[in-house]
Amino acid sequence: MILQYGNVDEQLAIVAEQLASVPELSRGFDAVGFSQGGQFLRAYVERNNTPSVHNLITFGSQHMGISDLPLCSSFDLLCLAARLAVKAGAYTEWAQENLVQVGQISSSCYSSETHS
Amino acid sequence: MSSGSFLADINNEVLLPSARKQAYAENLTSLQHLILVLFAEDETMVPKESAWFGSEAPPEQDMHYVTDRFLEQEHLGPFVQEKKPIVPMRLHPLYTEDWIGLRTLDERGAVVLVTCPGRHMQLTGCWESLAEKWIGSAL
User: Which bin fits B102, alpha (ψ -120 to 50), beta or left (φ > 0)?
Assistant: First the structure.
C-alpha cells in the first residue's frame, strides 16, 4: 500500500529512460502533471530533463508536501490506521521525511472514500 | 537515498548547503515556464497552498520570523484567511536561498501562479485555456 521512496526513484528512472527513447520528443516537450504527478514531473526535470521540458504545468501538486490527510470513512479501518500512523509522524517530523508516503496514503484513502 | 525522502531530495533540502545538487537548479531554471495551479476549494491536500510551494508555518519560535515577514508584506493575498498560517513560496528558504532555482525562474517571470475554481483535480472549465496557452507553443 505504501509506496517507498526507493520505488518512486526507480520508477522515475524508468520513465526517464522511456521518454529518452521516443524520437518525437527529442526536441523537448511540454508536460502536464496532475496532483502527485506534478512532483514526479518536477523530479524528472531536475534529475534528468533529457529530452527537456519546455513548459511544465502542475495541477494541485504537493510541492511542499502536506501536513494533514483527507478524512477516512468511519468503517475503513485500514485507512484510519494509516491516517493515525501518518499523522503522528507528520507532526513530530514535519521535515519532509514522510511526505511521499503521506501522499500515497492520502490517495488510497481518497479512493476508498469515493468508492464507499 | 538513505536519510532523506523523495520530496526532501527534489526540494534540495539538505543539512549542508554544499550537499545541494546544483544540477537540480540548473535543470529547473531551463524551463521556459513553470505553471503552478492551485484549486481554490481543495480539501484533499492540506495545505492546498502546497500547489504554489506554500507550506504551513512551523510551530513555536520560527513563527516570529514568519509573522514579522508577514507584516512586511504588502500583498498578503489569500494566505491570511487560512486557519493555520501559511508560509508562501517567496518567504520560504527554498525560495529565498534558491535551493532549486525557483527564485531564479520567478525573477525571470517564468513562474505562473494560477487559481482554478473547484475542488482537488476538478478540472472542468479550467484546464482548456491553460493548455491552449502553454502546451505546444514552443514546438
Answer: alpha
Interface probe, candidates B2, B5, B13, chain A, greatest A C-beta count within 10 A: B5
Q: How many domains, chain B?
A: 1
Q: What is the chain A residue with the closest CA to B5?
A: A97
Q: Is residue B1 part of a domain?
A: no
Chain A nearest-CA residue for B38: A60
- Using DSSP, state whether A65 is helix, strand or coil: coil
Q: Are B16 and A38 in contact (CB under 8 A)?
A: no
CA B68 – CA B120 distance, rounded (Å): 31
Task: Give A-chain residues touching B53 at CB under 8 angstroms.
Answer: 63-64
**Tens of each residue's pLDDT in chain A, 116 residues:** 344 445 788 899 999 999 999 999 999 999 999 999 999 999 999 999 999 999 999 999 999 988 776 666 667 777 777 677 666 665 444 434 444 444 433 333 333 222 22
Domain membership flag for residue B59: yes
Domain boundaries, chain A: 5-59, 77-115
